[in-house]
Every structure is written in structure tokens, then in C-alpha cells.
Design brief:
Elements (H helix, E strand, L loop, with lengths): L9 H20 L5 H9 L3 H29 L1 H19 L6 H12 L2 H5 L2 H8 L5 H26 L5 H25 L9 H13 L10 H29 L5 H29 L3 H18 L5 H15 L2 H13 L4 H30 L9 H19 L10
Helix pairs in contact: 1-4, 1-7, 1-8, 1-9, 2-3, 3-4, 3-5, 3-16, 4-5, 4-9, 7-8, 7-10, 8-12, 11-12, 11-15, 11-16, 11-17, 12-14, 12-15, 13-14, 13-17, 15-16, 16-17
Length: 414
């Protein structure tokens, strides 16, 4: 009976979702690797101004996330993702016509950001409706991998498309990304289905439980371990996003060009893809979560400390891979820990709150790194972001200490 409920079409649905997830990350980060001197020269604005183009995405995620989740619960994941994909596609196209007007570009970029919460918040419902229990971790991982692939494209392809300050090259880049956005939206709307023709009783029951349990979300804040996880997501995802946002500018001050910085950013994310496949798998086999998050944060702290100083491309590339491998692999383990803390019926709501805290951390730490740089750059004229990177190294140490206070959640399953 269980096998009869499994539909091969589930992979088509997941693939089309992954394409939209890829687009969401491309549109978010496509300006980050060409901040200076390309964007600043074309639009005659500051580095901080260009940083706003990336920063508005996590900033707008915060107020839009809960309404987006409610709409998805009411209308279904296909409706929600379709809304998000259409928003991103429409404003990706409109960005083409911003010309050299930075304000118009920022407005269209901000409007495109409104689509991202509809994409992120839908994966749990998609997986519950289409995938059997034993495939759901894999399916969720593939969906999240779409985000990583989008990051790689943005960080590595953009500098090749726009290697110098030239409005024609920038416009061509916007046209290419707009075309990808429109195609992915069309494929999802045409090919994705809300649910199989016959949905398992298990999936339907879980969906009902999750909707009812939404009233008990306040209970999350009475769980010490869940509060610690919120802090870990705030710091971990926040410092990662802030580092990627300012990476090109950080490395530019050390003599590396936009292409080299984009390659290093891509290598960080490639390391994250490998780490997210390897470390959570080992965590499942050993039925342990806490030790792996501790290892992830400890290794990340060491890398961040040395990342603050060196300007050698090869060393930065190797350290970037290691940083991504460990720091990004903590994300799926943390999401699994949250499910084990609150129970499977509340896992979707719990992950939504963790995403909210991660986006809040991203906004604040992007501002924080820029503020530290502005206040201390005169102390380190050849490496003005030195104390900015040291500051997120310190935050990583704080997260590591907090992690020591967590209780193991998976040992009962071993």
C-alpha cells in the first residue's frame, strides 16, 4: 500500500521547485561579486549603497514570511511558489529598464525580493505531500541545494558577465537572469501539481496536525534548546550572509579582482554543498547532532580568524572550501534538531521561525560589518575590513559556547 502512494512525478515537481529556488538566490546575490569598482563606477554610488541591493532581500523576508506561510497553508504550495516565482520574474524583467538610475534599480530589486519568502516557506508542504517519509530528508536537501546552486551562479558567473564597469555588459547580465527567471516561473506553473491524485493518509494527517499546531507556536519560546537554536541561526546564517555580501569588497582591498572574489565565493558554496551531503549523513548514521554542530562552528571559527588577514588567492580558496564545508553543513543539522525538539507535527512551523531569525541576523550583521569597517578602516588602511571579519569570528565563538548548552536530541533514535 505504501509503495502505491509513491509517484514518480514527485521528482518533476521537486525539480521545477528547485529551479525557482535557484533563481531566488541568483537575483539576491547577483550584484554582490561586482560591488567595486564595477557597480560603484557605473552608478556613481558608495559600496554601502550597492550593499543595499543584497541587504533588502533578508530585510523584506522578515515581514513577508508569516503572511506568505499563511497563504501557502490556505491555498497550497503551488499557489504560493507560483506567486513568488511570478513576482521575481516580473521585477527581474523590469530591472533591465533601470538604466543607470540606481534608485529605480533598488526599487525593482526590492520588489523582486518579495517573492523569496513564498519559495522558502513552501518546501516542507511540497515534500510532505509528494514524498514518502523515508525520502523527505533527501527531498528537502535537494530543494535547499537549489539555493546553493543559485548562490554559485551569482557569485561565479556574474563577474564573467560583467568583468568591467560597462552599462551594456550589466544590462546583458540583467537580460540573461530575467530570461532564466521567466523560464523557471513558466516551468513551475505549467509542470508542478499541488498533490498526487491519491495522497497518502499519512501526508494528509501531518498537514492537518501542522495547521492545528500553529496555535501552539508560543510554546516554542518555552523550550530552552529551541531558543538557543534561534540564536545559532541568527549568528550562523547571519555571518555567512554578511560575509558573502561584502566578500568582493573585502578581497578587492587586498588586491584581488571581482573575478577572483567571485570564484572564492563560489568555492565557499561548493564546499557547503559537499558538507551538507556528507556531515548530516554521518550525523544520521551515528544518531548524534550536537557534536557535529560543535565541530562545524569550531572549524569555521579557525578559518574566519585566518580569513581576516590573507590576500593569497590559493590560500583563500582552500580556506573558503573548508569554511563552506563546515559552516553550511550546520544548517540541515540545525533544522533536524528543531524538528526533534518540537516534534514532527510542529517541524514546519519551527523551521519558519528559524528562517525568520536567520534573515534578521543577515540584515543586522550586513549593517554591522559595514559599520565596523567604517569606524575602524583608518586603523588598517591596507585591510579595512580586518576588524569586521574579526568581529564575526568573535560571534562564531559566542555561537560555539551557546551550542555547548544544547542537549543532544537524536540519541534516543540511535
Amino acid at each position: 500500500m505504501g509503495k502505491a502512494e509513491v509517484h514518480s512525478y514527485r521528482w518533476v515537481v521537486l525539480f521545477t521547485y528547485m529551479l525557482v529556488a535557484v533563481v531566488s538566490q541568483i537575483l539576491w546575490l547577483n550584484f554582490a561579486p561586482i560591488t567595486t569598482p564595477i557597480m560603484t563606477s557605473i552608478f556613481r554610488v558608495t559600496e554601502s549603497d550597492v550593499g543595499l541591493l543584497s541587504m533588502v532581500w533578508p530585510l523584506l523576508f522578515i515581514p513577508v514570511s508569516i503572511p506568505a506561510g499563511m497563504l501557502i497553508d490556505k491555498k497550497g504550495f503551488k499557489f504560493g511558489v507560483s506567486i513568488g516565482a511570478l513576482i521575481m520574474a516580473v521585477f527581474a524583467v523590469l530591472r533591465i529598464f533601470s538604466g543607470e538610475n540606481f534608485t529605480i534599480l533598488l526599487i525593482f530589486q526590492s520588489c523582486a525580493a518579495l517573492g523569496q519568502p513564498f519559495v522558502f516557506n513552501a518546501v516542507s508542504k511540497l515534500v510532505t505531500l509528494w514524498f514518502p517519509f523515508e525520502e523527505r530528508a533527501l527531498a528537502t536537501g535537494i530543494g535547499i541545494m537549489g539555493q546553493y546552486i543559485g548562490m554559485i551562479v551569482a557569485m561565479m558567473l556574474t563577474p564573467f558577465l560583467v568583468p568591467k564597469p560597462n552599462i551594456a555588459l550589466l544590462t546583458n547580465m540583467l537580460v540573461i537572469y530575467a530570461a532564466v527567471s521567466v523560464i523557471s516561473a513558466a516551468l513551475f506553473i505549467i509542470l508542478a501539481r499541488e498533490k498526487p491524485k491519491s495522497t497518502s493518509h499519512e501526508a494528509t494527517a501531518e498537514e492537518v496536525k501542522a495547521s492545528i499546531a500553529f496555535k501552539d507556536i508560543k510554546g516554542f519560546f518555552g523550550k530552552k534548546d529551541f531558543i538557543i537554536l534561534e540564536a545559532l541561526f541568527f549568528i550562523g546564517v547571519g555571518l555567512f550572509t554578511a560575509l558573502l555580501t561584502w566578500l568582493e569588497t573585502i578581497l578587492n582591498t587586498r588586491g584581488l579582482g571581482a573575478t577572483d572574489a567571485g570564484l572564492i565565493g563560489g568555492i565557499i558554496i561548493i564546499g557547503g554543498i559537499f558538507g551538507s551531503l556528507a556531515i548530516p549523513g554521518i550525523s544520521d548514521k551515528t544518531a548524534r547532532r550536537k557534536p557535529f554542530i560543535i565541530i562545524d562552528l569550531a572549524v569555521a571559527a579557525v578559518i574566519l580568524y585566518f580569513f581576516a588577514e590573507t590576500g593569497d588567492f590559493l590560500i583563500l580558496a582552500v580556506m573558503g572550501f573548508i569554511l563552506g564545508f563546515f559552516l553550511m553543513s550546520a544548517l540541515p543539522i540545525g533544522l533536524e534538531m528543531s524538528a526533534e525538539i518540537v516534534g514532527s507535527a510542529l517541524a514546519g512551523s519551527a523551521s519558519s521561525f528559524l528562517w525568520l531569525f536567520s534573515q534578521a541576523g543577515s540584515v543586522i550583521l550586513i549593517f554591522f560589518m559595514d559599520a565596523v569597517k567604517s569606524a575602524t578602516e583608518s586603523l588598517y588602511p591596507s585591510n579595512p575590513y580586518y576588524l569586521s571579519v574579526i568581529s564575526i569570528f568573535i560571534l562564531d565563538i559566542i555561537a560555539l559556547v551557546l551550542c555547548l548548552l544544547l542537549k543532544e536530541t537524536a540519541k534516543a533514535k540511535g
